[in-house]
Specification:
Largest sheet: 8 strands, mixed
CATH topology of the largest domain: Rossmann fold
Low-confidence stretches: none
CATH class of the largest domain: Alpha Beta
Number of domains: 2
Shape: globular
Number of strands: 10
Oligomer: single chain
Helix content: 40-55%
Number of helices: 9
CATH architecture of the largest domain: 3-Layer(aba) Sandwich
């Protein structure tokens, strides 16, 4: 009989199964024989506990104390917003990390697990990793976002106290982890340089659609009948995702090179969605 691989507890401040990266990793591990538990945030009408595709899910009620992007406002208003949102982020991350710590003890007592797998942000979840390493658990740090750069992109800041704190926090996560998962080779290089860790500790795991569960729909005849090339962006629209550069590029094609042989569809949501709609209108792209 094949040996049971073990039990893994994942922590992610995102909804499950809506977060595709966390979902794909969890389901892949179950297919390999692991038992996977996930602690995630709870959306409206989602139960506290359920099983999805053999993954046992526990959920923490989500709190949202502030708007994560203030839009275009006066510099003084932006400064006040920055202070409030910084405090809000700290409270939100502390709240989620505390809930995860308590629920992790619950999962350990009820089910047991051998590996703790945290998805950032927040990096603050390393505290849970540190506690359970003291009990002999292995710790995996799944590095979704570069938090220092994410901070700079959101607040247009250069360096500063919070930036340096985030750098140190990231270094602790990288050094504490038994294994690090990077989303791409660029992240791996940054992790080696900033965390001073060896390459054999880092594994690059990319994310993509599960072709077995991909629903192929018929083509949209209305769009096809336009006889134009269709450009599509599908994903999250945060300040770090660069969708504003896409709009600027489209504006260049339309207004500078007078190209009219294409149509663009942008699909998704995020903190800067409303700002992008305003920008699209100002650039004359809503036609």
């Amino acid at each position: 009989m094949k040996a049971f691989p073990g039990k893994i507890l994942m922590l992610a401040e995102s909804p499950f199964p809506q977060d595709s990266r966390v979902r794909n990793e969890a389901i892949t591990l179950t297919r390999m024989g692991y038992k996977v538990y996930v602690i995630a945030t709870r959306w409206e009408n989602q139960p506290f506990n359920e099983e999805i595709d053999k993954v046992t899910v526990y959920r923490v009620s989500q709190i949202d104390l502030f708007k994560k992007n203030p839009g275009r406002v006066h510099p003084l208003v932006r400064s006040i917003y920055y202070l409030n949102s910084a405090i809000g982020y700290i409270f939100e991350y502390f709240y989620f990390s505390t809930c995860c710590l308590l629920l992790s003890f619950y999962v350990e007592l009820r089910h047991g697990f051998q590996v703790l797998h945290t998805h950032n942000p927040p990096n603050m979840l390393f505290i849970v990793g540190l506690v359970f390493k003291l009990f002999g658990k292995k710790y995996v740090f799944d590095h979704h976002d570069l938090s220092p750069e994410l901070f700079l992109s959101r607040y247009n800041k250069v360096g500063g106290l919070i930036y340096n704190i985030l750098l140190q926090e990231e270094k602790i996560c990288l050094r504490l982890a038994d294994r690090v998962i990077a989303t791409n080779e660029s992240y791996k290089m940054i992790e080696m340089e900033r965390g001073h860790i060896k390459s054999d500790k880092i594994f690059v795991v990319r994310n993509g659609p599960d072709l077995q569960n991909l629903l192929i729909l018929p083509a949209n005849e209305a769009l096809k009948s336009m006889g134009k090339k269709i450009l599509v962006y599908l994903g999250i629209m945060g300040p770090q995702d660069g969708v504003d550069y896409l709009l600027k590029s489209l504006s260049c094609l339309v207004n500078q090179y007078h190209r009219t042989d294409f149509y663009t569809i942008i699909i998704g949501t995020g903190d800067v969605l409303e700002d992008l709609k305003i920008m699209s209108s100002e650039l004359g792209l809503e036609k």
